[in-house]
Amino acid sequence: MARLSNRALWTTHLKAGSISKAISPVVLEIKEPFSGYVLGIDPSVRGTGLALLKLEKGMPTLVQSHTLNFSARYTLPDCLGQIYQVVSSLLEGYEKGHVALESTVYVQNFQIVHKLGAARGAAIAAANLRGWDVFEYAPLRIKQATVGSGRASKEQVCRTMTQHLRLKACLPSDEADAAATALCHAWTFKSIA
User: Do residues 171 and 51 make contact, with C-beta atoms less than 8 angstroms apart?
Assistant: First the structure.
């Protein structure tokens, strides 16, 4: 038996009248824009970036941003304590919201991974104890969601955050990364409720 071409199969299918049963109308789900506070964190032991954004109907406003820079004279426990304390005090004055962190990227040096994990843990613990929900995003996803390219440079992220947040000058690099992380969460978060 000869095989029918795609055109012949569709012609037979249309004549049978089963096309209306096979194709159902597409229902698009309209996502309600995120509203509330999002703290973006770009974790590091020596240079943690923080950016607190307020979103109203999807429109972001920078509330405050900080870069926690620690010199080499600070021990790891000193740095972690400061990260915990600053995140905790930053969240204290605002209604509960979300915290978005950049997830750990592949690093060959075990000591760097260990210290980065400790810095992330200090920030996550502070947020959790304040009752804020914590979410993690890969660096490529953050750049894709906010800049449009997963391979965007630090300068591109900075310029894009300046535009999105309607700022007059670029934020420092760590703060721009933290703001991008917060925006990524706000623009891609889908509530389960």
Answer: yes
Beta bridge partners of 60: 55
Q: Give the whole-angstrom CA distance, residue 97 versus residue 36.
A: 6
By annotation, the residues acting in catalysis are 42, 102, 174
Q: How many CA atoms lie within 13 A of 18 on its CB side?
A: 7
141 burial via Cβ count (<10 Å: 0-12, 13-18, 19+): middle
Instruction: Tell me which of 49-53, 81-85, 187-191 is least confident.
Output: 187-191
Q: Give domain 36-188's CATH number out of 3.30.420.10, 3.90.180.10, 3.40.50.970, 3.40.50.300.
A: 3.30.420.10
Tell me how far apart the alpha carbons of residues 78 and 73 are, in angstroms, rounded to a whole number: 10
Q: Is the pTM of this model over 0.85?
A: no
pLDDT digits (tens, 9 = 90+) for 71-111: 889 999 999 999 999 999 999 989 999 999 998 876 778 88
